[in-house]
Amino acid sequence: MLSTQVKDGSKFSDICFSALGSIIIMLGMGLTLTLEDFKRVVTYPKAVVIGLVAQLIVLPIVGFGIASVFPLNSQLAVGVMILAACPGGATNRCRCGVGNSSFECVAMALGFAIATLTRLGEKRVTAITVEVGIQNGTLAIAIASTPTLLNSTIMAIPGAIYGLLMFVTCAGFA
Question: What DSSP letter does each residue of 114-163 carry, written as one string?
């Protein structure tokens, strides 16, 4: 029953196992948090607020700019916007650096500039640079291609290309 075909030909079991894998990763990361981590966020919220504004407001605006400036068809432009709106989460733990992916370079430069201008200190600048700069290509692919969501393999292309290039460029902020 788990191998039932979904409308686009993908297997329901594949979708379930992908989601389960993400749940396990996020649970594992969450279990490493301590009460001190939460106290630090409440005591020193500046870095968190700056990172959230950069990730959730500024980066989608930059994604829109990229999608508007380059001659992309409408489905690829939507794919870029989906990618811009997918925070990296577990993906960021690889601490990737700047490299061949132009969207990643723009996003990391943006995160670095915002964190540096607000004088957050070296460790927080690095954290915000990586958090803003690394997007979750897998999530972007899932949103774009899942039959119950957008059901478009073309919209998934930016996330797929980004996902491959992102891991090639890992190194700089380890």
Answer: HHHHTT--HHHHHHHHHHHH-B-HHHHHHHHH-TTTT--HHHHHHHHHHH
